[in-house]
Each structure stands twice: as structure tokens, then as C-alpha cells.
Give the backbone structure.
Amino acid sequence: MAQVFQIAIDGPSGAGKSTIAKMLAAALNIDYIDTGAMYRAVGYKMLREGISLDQRDALKAMLDRTHIDFRQGETILDGEVISQAIRTPEISKMASDASAFPEVREKLVALQRAMGEEKSVIMDGRDIGTNVFPNAKYKFYLTATVSERARRRWLELKEKGQEAELADVEADIITRDHNDTVRPLNPLRKAEDAIEIDTTNMNGEQVTQFILNYINKN
Ligand code: DC
């Protein structure tokens, strides 16, 4: 049987991680795990249950009765498909805040490791190459300028019919970059052995092709 391996894709919001990870998963015929969606699921459930960031006991109790899964590309929270519902600016912020708590990270990282150890996966997030799978066979770190990342997120929102000002989207991205890089626990950073790709002037096909070429040669 072929050896199980992991491909880690990390980087800030809007750098193109999920687009690239989906294209790679299709090209390599392996599973894609969107770890950001898992933090979003926690943020979504906190908002729905009215649990605020200072209610740590309620948060812990909630985590104990939370089940997150992926099925056919959909994110499933306690049996309910939430793939679309978690893509709002409000949940982006809540997910980023909730992701700083040790109890949240502990639960989700354990789940991520279990998912990536049973079969080969592409996993994207902030700490995959540094913390979840430090021994991943392949590690990539995607970046792009703040204005380009904001433009991409704004276009995404617009395509979904959500009204947003580009300046607000850019401000959100700056806040989240800050949150995600300064938190003490597994902050966003490039693993020393990750290949960094600046996607500012590249489209999805170009980035995917670059990564596939690298994988074929290594
Ligand atoms: O990738 P995303 O925007 O869907 O992620 C939402 C938030 O979840 C992000 O602001 C930080 C957090 N996150 C994290 O802390 N660690 C990960 N591996 C993935 C996401």
C-alpha cells in the first residue's frame, strides 16, 4: 500500500490557500482538509449559542459536545451542513478570536492529526507545517500583498451577493493578520523548511502547476 503523506499549505487570509488546495486535491486525487473551516465551525456555534469570548467554561462544555467532519467537500457541524453559513465577516472574526484559546486548538489539532494520519491529505491553515504536521512531506507557504488579498476576498463576497466596501475588507484582513500572527499559541508563521510562494501576480493554475512540478521532482 502506498505510504500516507501530508501536504501542508499555510499562509494568511486571501493568499489563495483553499483555491490551490482544492485544485491540488483534484489533480492528485487525495482529500482536502480545510482547517480554517473547523475554527469557523467553532465560531459559528459560539455565536449561535450566544457564548462570548469570556465564557471559557461554557466554551469548554460546548467543545465537548461538538462534532466536526467533512463529507464530499462540505463542512459538517453536528450533522448539519454549514459550508456556506460560515463564510461571513462576523464568523471570520469570531473564528480568529476563538482560535487563540488553547482548548479550541487542542481539540481541533487532535482531530486534524487523526484525519491526516489515516490517509494522504492536503491540509491548509495557519499552523499545519509548524505544528499539526511538522513532518509533512511537502510544505508550502503562500503569501500575497494585503491589497491583493483584500481584493480577492472582496470579489468573493461580491460573487456571493454580499455587499462590502473594499476598505472594510482590507481593514478586516489587517486585523486578522495581526490576531493570527501575535497569538502566543501556534501563531501563523512560515515553517523553516516550507517553500514560500508569493501569489500576488499569479493565478490559481500557475500556483497549482508550480506546486505540482515541485512535487513531481521531489
Ligand atoms: O483560513 P480561514 O480564514 O478560514 O481561517 C479562519 C480563522 O481560523 C483564521 O483567522 C485563524 C484560524 N485558523 C487557525 O488559527 N489555525 C488554522 N490552522 C486555520 C485557521
In short: The pocket of 2'-deoxycytidine-5'-monophosphate is lined by residues 13, 35-36, 39-40, 92, 95-96, 99, 125-128, 176, 180 (CB under 6 Å). The first strand starts at residue 6 and ends at 10.
